[in-house]
Design brief:
This is Sigma-70 family RNA polymerase sigma factor. This protein is mainly alpha-helical. The chain folds into 2 domains: 82 residues, Rna Polymerase Sigma Factor, Chain: A (Orthogonal Bundle); 65 residues, Winged helix-like DNA-binding domain superfamily/Winged helix DNA-binding domain (Arc Repressor Mutant, subunit A, Orthogonal Bundle), CATH 1.10.10.10. It contains 7 helices and 2 strands, in the order ββααααααα. A two-stranded antiparallel ribbon has the order 1-2. The longest helix has 35 residues. It is elongated and about 70 Å long.
């Protein structure tokens, strides 16, 4: 018999503890996930992680919070992966819409979009996406904080995305 972590004065079987652990993890994952049908897969992955890392659990009475944290982190990872899939699907859809364009036409459109930006923003985006520099390297080069670089890149990408989707005149 094991002590019930929620009610220390009561005891439960190992099977009851595992069922409670599963219920708690599933509850957390369903709450955190954007795409609810992935919940079972995420909980299953959490079980694997728990079994692989069980030696890192120092206090057995912290099993359920530890498992819930692992499940929540995996749910966040699943959300992040799902958002990347959505971005890739969007890019593929954009490519299918513009699929008839030749590579030179695409380069010309990209050049036009970049030409609409102020020189600092254009340089920032080129450093990041053309030259592949890290945010820290860009910050050091421009003499600004890393947070400023990240914010400017984020705003610039949003502005370009809005321009592409609005099909409005680029000024």
């Amino acid at each position: 018999m094991l002590r019930n972590p929620h009610f220390p004065e009561t005891f439960c079987t190992e099977e009851q503890l595992l069922e409670e652990l599963y219920r708690q993890m599933l509850k957390v994952v369903r709450h955190k996930l954007w795409h609810k049908p992935d919940a079972g897969d995420v909980v299953q992955e959490a079980w694997v992680r728990i079994l692989e890392n069980r030696s890192s659990l120092r206090e057995q009475d912290k099993l359920i919070p530890w498992a819930k944290t692992i499940a929540a982190n995996l749910a966040y990872n699943a959300n992040r992966a799902r958002s990347k899939e959505v971005i890739c699907e969007t890019c593929e859809n954009e490519y299918n819409i513009h699929g008839a364009m030749s590579e030179p036409e695409l380069m010309l459109e990209l050049s036009d979009l970049l030409g609409c930006l102020d020189p600092t923003t254009r340089t920032l985006l080129l450093y990041k996406f053309y030259y592949g520099l890290k945010d820290r390297e860009i910050a050091d080069t421009l003499g600004v904080p890393v947070g400023t670089v990240k914010a400017r890149i984020h705003r610039s990408k949003a502005r370009l995305n809005a321009q592409v989707h609005d099909d409005s005149p680029r000024t």
